[in-house]
Amino acid sequence: MTVKLSRLLEEIRPLEVIGETEKNIVSLQSDSRKVEKEGMFVAVRGVTTDGHKYIPMVASAHVGAIVCEELPAQLEQGITYIRVEDTSEALGRLASAWYGHPSDQLRLVGVTGTNGKTTTATLLYEMAKLEGYKAGLLSTVCNYIQDRAIPTTHTTPDPLTLNALLSEMVEAGCDYAFMEVSSHAAQQRRIAGLKFAGAIFSNLTRDHLDYHGTVENYMNAKKMFFDQLPADAFALVNRDDKAGLYMTQNTKAKVYTYSLRSEADFRCKVLETRLDGTLLELNGREIEVRFTGRFNAYNLTAVYGASLLIGWDPEEVAVNMSRLVPVAGRFQTFRSESGVTAIVDYAHTPDALVNVLDTIRDVVGADGRITTVVGAGGNRDHGKRPLMARESACRSDLLILTSDNPRDEEPESIISEMKEGLTAEELKRTLCITDRREAIRTALRMAEPGSVVLIAGKGHEPYQEVKGVRHHFDDREEVENAFKEL
Length: 486
Prior knowledge:
The chain is α/β, with parallel strands linked by helices. It has 17 helices and 26 strands. α10 runs antiparallel to α11 and α16 (436-446) packs across α17 (475-485). The radius of gyration is 24 Å and the shape is globular.
């Protein structure tokens, strides 16, 4: 595949171009290790490294063009240098053009927020298929092109991977694509150049402060997604979250709201809740769903609203919502022969733990016994660790602190930081078991018939990352194996 450089330049706004523009470009890369002769290299300033320092090496490979924010001291003959204001933005737009603007040929809907992105995007993907359409999904758990699964490494892929996947969706005949849009992706311009038909905001609580620094920065990163929506798109936001309407202050898109507490375009009431399902009333229509908890009621209200905004028939949407099943590792329920219920959930923020534990308490009542097994990820926001422990302890009868993905940190140090959030009384009903497998087995062995054990933090993840190495570990498998031993 070759593309004329002059055509690619139409997609960006160069501040300066030095060299020939009527040449063919054979590849597009932001990874200096993958550049080809007569290809284009985009020097992106990343979190850990700056692509500009690799320009001399790339130039020696005789690339056709280099896109940069600062020109190198020495310009090589035969290479066209393109100076732009923001290479991250340029890469997104160039990647979209390179793959033929695939998002223009799909109805692309993005979902952002701290919690609920995976569930909402995945359920919309499933809804599209139930409605009889071909669809693609880009999510934390897995990417899908219709029914073909493609493993994922990031919530939102880099621009080249992202547009390549969207292009494959177009080739497969997909009508729709649904994707999670992380705050990192918005700030790093990974979604630049994409055309969205709609955007959904779920909620905003403390997360990723190791990267964004403050909650305000984190919120504004998500707001960037809505700021860039076109006028013919819809913006569907959670009215019950204080950041909801803030997201749409500067958007050109048409704004809609959803709510469980106040007047909104899409209104939901929880009529009845159980561990295996909920009866909802959505805009006056009763729908029985296989999901539990108010947090899932919010996710499903967003799905309902987006489905109608997309243009699907309300009657069919109501029927198909009752056919949806929970996403892997999101409030996934297991029950032993002795009557113990284990719930595996991805909750890894203080707010997510509150949502899940309050849901369990609503179902089991004041006399029901709840055990929570939870850890915190290494090399991430230290400030949320004691908060996670505190929220878990005050909503559980027994708390077991354990490892999550310790990454480069010592698990015992992470657990010590979590314990700082506990009172002396809460510490008396807290166990610290570093080995996650043993922590899960201990919780299930100690559980009484009719009680609930929440295993939080990893959800769908089939690994545990220790010192840079991912070892196979799946909370769901551990639960099933422990139940066989009881």
